[in-house]
Design brief:
Chain A: This is Leptin receptor gene-related protein. The complex is a heterodimer of chains A (about 130) and B (about 160). By secondary structure, chain A is an all-alpha fold. Helix content of chain A is about 75%, strand content about 0%. By secondary structure, chain B is mostly helical. Classes of the chains: A mainly alpha (about 130), B mainly alpha (about 160).
């Protein structure tokens, strides 16, 4: 049952993050929907980890070059997700308030994704059936 | 006076054991530096779109820094030392030459970015921000390369 509680908590925080993101786009003062492109960064941020996990079979080694490259690219995607709204605000496409809201939403959503991996990603495949 | 500080010891921090996580931390720090550098450059390119303000050829520095990042990190330290068993037609010498060219490109673009900063911006009495962006991009990629290359240990891979 612990898995279900964690799942509910994670989806709650994910919804809060998306709410921040939508607030940054859709509030009457702002009303510009370009920041929604950070959703792409959210979507592709776990991909390097999945690829590295599939490529490296043996789990005996504490680390591997492929997994470290995956960490590198994941960090890059996260940094890009934070850099993109800042650039939009710099060229006055969106206002700085909207940028702040999107950044807050980014932080919450990435923490949610991180939490998802901490809770469910640790075990092997059978842990998906356990909860 | 000699050996004055020999007995001075920083108290050992037992809070977190970093030895297992060292490679992951180094990778994340390198990633932050690398992509922050590129986003600084994107910012400068977006804010100063005209070639008079930011000459488009100044992007070459960052491109070569990135190429050097790949070249330096594509060979492992074991290859350079000659510890690995497989030897091609180039072998250890090839790895060393490759790494040497990589570091040459790295230092070359770092120096070139400093040159751009001072030659094209500071001495011309123009808005200096694009030059600073070029310089910081190359400096951050440089430090990212160093951390990614030397911050990780290859003992964890075996």
């Amino acid at each position: 049952m612990a898995g279900v509680k964690a799942l509910v908590a994670l989806s709650f925080s994910g919804a809060i993050g998306l709410t921040f993101l939508m607030l940054g786009c859709a509030l009457e003062d702002y009303g510009v929907y370009w920041p929604l492109f950070v959703l792409l960064f959210h979507a592709i941020s776990p991909l390097p980890h999945f690829i590295a996990k599939r490529v490296t079979y043996d789990s005996d080694a504490a680390s591997s070059a492929c997994r470290e490259l995956a960490y590198f690219f994941t960090t890059g995607i996260v940094v890009s997700a934070f850099g993109f709204p800042v650039i939009l605000a710099r060229v006055a496409v969106i206002k700085w308030g909207a940028c702040g809201l999107v950044l807050a939403g980014n932080a919450v959503i990435f923490l949610t994704i991180q939490g998802f991996f901490l809770v469910f990603g640790r075990g092997d495949d059978f842990s998906w059936e356990q909860w | 006076m000699a050996g004055f500080l020999d007995n001075f010891r920083w108290p050992e921090c037992e809070c977190i054991d970093w030895s297992e996580r060292r490679n992951a931390v180094a990778s994340v720090v390198a990633g932050i530096l690398f992509f922050t550098g590129w986003w600084i450059m994107i910012d400068a390119a977006v804010v100063y779109p005209k070639p008079e303000q930011l000459n488009h050829t100044f992007h070459t520095c960052g491109v070569f820094s990135t190429l050097a990042f790949f070249m330096i990190n594509a060979v492992s330290n074991a290859q350079v030392r000659g510890d690995s068993y497989e030897t091609g037609c180039l072998g250890r010498t090839g790895a060393r030459v490759w790494l040497f060219i990589g570091f040459m490109l790295m230092f070359g673009s770092l120096i070139a970015s400093m040159w751009i900063l001072f030659g094209a911006y500071v001495t011309q009495n123009t808005d200096v921000y694009p030059g600073l962006a070029v310089f910081f991009q190359n400096a951050l990629i440089f430090f990212s390369t160093l951390i990614y290359k030397f911050g990780r240990t290859e003992e964890l891979w075996t």
